[in-house]
Amino acid sequence: MNFEQAKNLTFSKLTNPNLQKHCLAVSQVMRHLAKRFNQDEEKWAIAGMLHDLDYQETQSQPEKHTLLTGEWLSAYNLDPEILSAIKAHAGKAERNSLINQAIWCADPVTGFLVACALIRPDKKIEPVDVQFALKRMKEKRFAQGASREQIQACSEMGLSLEEFLEISLSAMKEIKAELGL
User: Fold this and answer.
1) How far apart are CA 85 and CA 51, in angstroms?
2) What is the reported pTM?
């Protein structure tokens, strides 16, 4: 499965435009993290794109999240690292590899950065910078659904919070039109 096939599958399973944009954002952050660590960018982007594939189906049963995805993807003979990363983003696989650590952090940071963009008057991500994001990180009531602990786990990859936010912002700004930001 290549990235376009993963995107098409994701968009066929997730009809909510916000979930589609979330998966686009996570895949883009994963692609940039792969580049930073000299890893397979396509593989990491596919993991990001597919990570919430079963979200709409399992929303009322979070314990099944990613398990249904595993069943759906069994026919595709995907790299086991992709499947492990998908499980890891939901805490159902150990963060014992770089890709698993990356997706654990990439998932919440995208929602956090979207929230940073949406509180700006223009609702655009372009003016959001690391300092603005860091300031918002300290506000417990801001973007409460984005786990600060998960985002700060970027240190497991040897990245400072500032560097991780910079990589993530740069990634998302590249596809700002697709994200509607």
Assistant:
1) 8
2) 0.96
